[in-house]
Amino acid sequence: MRRSKILVLLLMMSLCLPGCGKKEETSQLQQSLKQEGMQLQASGDYTGAIAKYEEALKLADMKVDEEEIDIAYYKASAQYRSGDLTGAIDTYSAILAVKESENSYLGRGLLYVAAKDAKKAEADLNKVLKETKNPLIQGIIYNAVNQNEKAKECFEKAKKDGEADAIFYLANLYEKAGDYNYAMILLEEYIESGKSGAEGYLSVGRHYYDAGALEEALEMIQKGIALGESGVLKSLLQEEIACYEKAGDFSTASDKAKAYLEKYPDDALIQKEYEFLKSR
Are 187 and 204 in contact (CB under 8 A)? Predict the structure, then answer.
């Protein structure tokens, strides 16, 4: 199952400076730029999205409040998705310098895990573990550091408490352990909860694909595409092409690849795949 941040100089400078409030027109412009960034991020243009978020942050007028922090989170997400782990970590560090929070320490800690910086990851994640009573958060941390039994225990408790996302994480654990059948049962339960979002459909679709159940895989993938969620839309479209190709429907796969490249023209792998599909 494949399941998911440097602030601009002005923001860094503003950490130690008092704010004088912002005009309404400035706030509206920031929100407009954030929306433009989100649209670019949805299309897979992470560089363009980051530029929009930075432009919005430059309007802070030496004051950092919840609006700037929210925009910075989006920037961190775009940096992470672009592969810029260092930038994403720096952005989270700047956020924490403005306002400490459980979610920010968790986010930075997980990024340190991804960056294989065990010492810094441990410091951030242990800080969260000492303070949180949320079994879902505890499970996410244990899962990130491969303490699978503790993670499973926490996710089971969170599931009993009604946390739908705990079902997804449990499915991930069971799949890692090789219990694909129970992982599938959990993923279907996650879908039925109505809270899975596009990522849930992507995970279930991939599971069906790996099992050779292409019709079911395509159904899940297309349901995820219909949601139009930015974070995994690109991956869903890639999986749709793969489903049609594996099913031998090269004509449809080629059409889907062509449409994909109109949306993501810089994807060299799909460009190569499209040339292959056109020759079939």
Answer: yes
3-state secondary structure the chain: CCCCCCCCHHHHHHCCCCCCCCCHHHHHHHHHHHHHHHHHHHCCCHHHHHHHHHHHHHHHCCCCCHHHHHHHHHHHHHHHHCCCHHHHHHHHHHHHHHCCCHHHHHHHHHHHHHCCCHHHHHHHHHHHHHHCCCHHHHHHHHHHCCCHHHHHHHHHHHHHCCCHHHHHHHHHHHHHCCCHHHHHHHHHHHHHCCCCHHHHHHHHHHHHHHCCCHHHHHHHHHHHHHHCCHHHHHHHHHHHHHHHHHCCCHHHHHHHHHHHHHHCCCCHHHHHHHHHHHCC
pLDDT one-digit tens code per residue, 56-78: 999 876 677 888 999 999 999 99
Please indicate, yes or no, whether the overall pTM of this predicted structure exceeds 0.70.
yes
Indicate left, alpha or beta for 35 from its phi (over 0: left) and psi (-120 to 50: alpha). alpha
The CA-atom distances, in angstroms, between 219 and each of 34, 162, 194, 216, 244 are: 33, 27, 16, 5, 12
What is the distance, to the nearest Å, from the Cα of residue 228 to the centroid of all Cα atoms in its chain? 14
C-alpha triplet 249, 255, 259: angle, nearest 5°: 145
